[in-house]
Amino acid sequence: MAIELYSNISIQQALAWLYGKDALGPCGYDGDLGEPGSDSYCRQLIRRFEAEYGLAVDGGVWGWDCQRKIAEVLTNGVQLTPHFNSAELGCGIAVSDNDDPAIHSTNCLHFPEMINHTALNCLEATRCDLGSGIQVTSGVRCPDYNASLSGSSSESLHTAGRAFDCNAMGACSLEELLEIGLRNGFTWGYVGNGYVHLQYTGSGY
Ligand SMILES: [Zn+2]
Ligand SMILES: [Zn+2]
């Protein structure tokens, strides 16, 4: 399977991770980037991204040059929230992940999908409520990597950047971590073999 270019919503999520949600303009996550070549908030942001990262600046069109670059930047590590860095959340680079290219989708690039802001904010809130560190053992996954894991569902929200497998590094039991996660915005979860799966299925991006 091959990963496609991000949806407009995912492009807006990527831009918001770099420049803040307010930079998307008053419409926020609306899935509308504006006309190519126009001065809409999103087309201007894409051009800013291209200029800052040494890409050819065009009409603000999101192409593979942009997607490869954002994946590289996030793989190298961007502090997304006070306690979580993109380098610990990518496909094949989170703690328990396998980075053998043979099992990843073409153009996975560690970020086959954007990390959902609301979901990561739930994890940040869980971390703050717990009061100590949370280790993410698996974050976003491409479809082929996800399928390689025993017992995984093709509908897994890991492939949507909305689920995290994690542990509290001994600070509390997995059952307690699940409970803390569910009271901090995650909509569902379960205790797995040595990890807690937490996911967010709400309407927030
Ligand atoms: Zn992958
Ligand atoms: Zn999981």
UniProtKB/TrEMBL annotation:
Span of domain Peptidase M15A C-terminal: 113-198
Gene3D superfamilies: 3.30.1380.10
Name the record gives this protein: Peptidase M15A C-terminal domain-containing protein
Species annotation: Eubacterium callanderi
